[in-house]
Design goal:
The protein has 303 residues and is an all-alpha fold. It is built from 13 helices and no strands.
Length: 303
């Protein structure tokens, strides 16, 4: 019981507190969540991804191994969700929302802090690579899936090419490969923006919760939560064995894959008008329920 309380207080409660601020703001001054979503999407998110990639301290081989694991896990879960949506004969935009909520974990503020709390700095370094990879997929595959919810393939690809974070990833990889040192003003600008990204995500979540109104659980929401909290870590455990990940890489990878649905999915849902109420409900429900699945998982992973 004390372990569950520690997980809640140290990792979940701050997330809910910041989202609560967004909820109160939406209830009192009625801001437009779409406007803030666009600012997060075009400004804060590219800075965050650029900073994560350029600040990583792992070797190129370690980064590539963890990135391949992260991409494989998330894409497999997304494919499973797509098959489930097709089997359920869901409309295209609803199927896109199901894929987003199942595929994209909250590997940042929740996943990084939980890895630090449970396994220390070694696991945290690997978790950061997982997060950077998941974020890159969010703004490539995730944007493409969200676009397909309301557009054809050609339009979705065109929208992808206009996504700032895609270019932030490419620029960061070039900086790392060339060993460049950013000028101090540029570095401080990027770092300051990156530090504001996660709080902005959570403020948007709170606004979305208020806009969604009272949450009414549905079978589809339950399916999305099960895919994220149960199917995803199961897929990760299988891939860990196949790819031979051990030690901190293994623990960090499995924990990151077991995170609840990423807050940024609410931003994508708002920007591309893909079932934002459903996505918000899944983010909220999976976050609230995550200690129930994470506690035994941590106990199993702890040496």
């Amino acid at each position: 019981m004390s372990e569950i309380a520690g997980l809640f207080v140290d990792n979940l409660l701050p997330i809910l507190a910041i989202a609560g601020i967004g909820y109160v703001l939406a209830a009192t001054i009625t801001p437009d969540p779409r406007t803030l979503s666009l600012v997060v999407f075009h400004v804060f998110s590219p800075a965050l991804i650029f900073a994560l990639i350029t600040d990583s301290q792992l070797s190129g081989g370690d980064m590539a191994h963890m990135a391949a694991f992260a991409a494989g896990t998330l894409l497999l879960v997304g494919a499973i969700a797509a098959l489930v949506g097709r089997a359920m004969r869901l409309p295209r935009h609803t199927r896109a929302a199901l894929v987003l909520t199942a595929m994209l974990p909250n590997a940042g503020n929740y996943g990084l802090s939980l890895n630090m709390f449970a396994f220390g700095n070694d696991a945290l370094a690997h978790a950061a690579v997982f997060f950077a990879t998941s974020a890159a997929l969010t703004y490539t595959v995730g944007v493409f899936v969200a676009s397909l919810g309301r557009a054809d393939t050609r339009t979705a690809l065109h929208g992808l090419l206009r996504t700032p974070t895609v270019y932030a990833v490419l620029m960061a990889l070039v900086v790392v490969a060339m060993g460049w040192q950013l000028p101090v003003p540029v570095e401080r600008t990027v770092d300051t923006l990156a530090q504001g990204a996660i709080p902005a995500f959570l403020i948007v979540l709170g606004m979305q919760l208020h806009r969604a109104g009272p949450l009414r659980p549905t079978a589809l929401q339950g399916m999305a939560v099960a895919l994220r909290l149960a199917v995803s870590p199961a897929v990760a455990v299988g891939l860990v064995a196949v790819m031979g990940l051990t030690g901190p890489a293994r623990t960090a990878g499995v924990v990151e894959a077991a995170m609840p649905t990423a807050v940024v999915t609410t931003v994508l849902a708002e920007v591309f008008d893909v079932e934002p109420s459903f996505v918000t409900a899944v983010v909220f429900a999976s976050t609230i329920l995550s200690p129930i699945t994470l506690t035994p998982l941590l106990a199993w992973l702890t040496p």
